[in-house]
Amino acid sequence: MIDRMGWEGISALIAAGAAVITLIVGWLQLRGALRAADKSYRAALDAVKATAAETHTQWLRGVRREAYAAFLLECSKTEVVISRLVDDIGHNEIPVDQREQRRETVKAAVKELHNRALIVDLEGPPELGRLAEAIACNGNEQLHKTLDFCNLHWAWEDLTRTAEGPDRQQVSGFYQALHHLMAVRPARVTSPDDEGATSDFRHAYERMEQAERELSFTLQHSRLIIGARRYALGASEAFVAMAISGGRSYEMLKDEFRDRVREVLNTSR
Question: For the whole prediction, is pTM greater than 0.85?
Fold first, then answer.
């Protein structure tokens, strides 16, 4: 009886042990399956992240390319608009009733250049944003110089028109004095105190000042007289030198911007 109960106990223990072993094996198998599933999940997640990162990189590259291209196109447009204005003024090809429109066209071009530079700054990288802003500031400087050039030439045109019109008596003396001053003024001399000023220039300068004092108070302080005087003393010639220097700086900045754009777009592939 005891032997039989002993064998039954042993059998029960063996059965219980087998059940434990089965549980352990099952747990180990489940653990292996969970590890494999986790590895597969992580691999899939990494693939999704890599795809998302690549998609974002390509998207960012496309957005930046469009911003850079739009900015460079606006650079060229601004350059053309300013150049045409200066050429047309030099050939007296802008009617009086079109002056304001041409001024506004140049102002609008430079304003749009600044807007495009802001977009470049937003899209980055910072170095390109700084370059774009430097180009826009250069364009703004050229705008102000060009508008000053316009005012000088238009003042001279208006004075000439007045001196040849029915109101010629008001300005004829001053106009003739300016003509004489321009004829005897040495290059790069704008004042009797400048080095290189001749006695003829000094006498012509005094004559011009005397003729200016004989004008009415309103005319003396008008943009017409002030601008024509500056024109006769070579301010427009100084503009040409400044325009050449400013144009070179503008082109150098544009070249630097283009080179940096190529680097940025190539490294973002």
Answer: no
